[in-house]
Amino acid sequence: MAIKSCRLSVDGKRVMSIEEFKRWLKTFDADKDGRISREELEDAMPGGWFTRWKGKRGIRSADSDGNGFIEESEINNLVEFAQKYLGVKILRL
């Protein structure tokens, strides 16, 4: 499931609030453990080998404690990754 939003910014990026991003991200928590694994993150992004690379890169950039998962306290790190590499503009309201 790709990031979907009906709002687009002037530069063509999808726009969502931080809360919308968190809700969207939680839909990929397949085992409902409250964390996002690399595999779950890959499922959130469309497209082949590049997806695996982005999933690994997303985990590395957001996983501040190095345990291989994105937890609630690390979601802000993932926001930065999504804005830089996934073409999303996330508004902090």
UniProtKB/TrEMBL annotation:
Keywords: Calcium. It holds the Pfam family EF-hand_5. The keyword Calcium applies. GO terms for molecular function: calcium ion binding. Transmembrane segments: none annotated. InterPro entries: EF-hand-dom_pair, EF_Hand_1_Ca_BS, EF_hand_dom. Gene3D superfamilies: EF-hand. The keyword rRNA processing does not apply. Residues 16-51 form the EF-hand domain. PROSITE patterns: EF_HAND_1, EF_HAND_2. It comes from the Eukaryota. This is EF-hand domain-containing protein. It comes from Salix udensis.
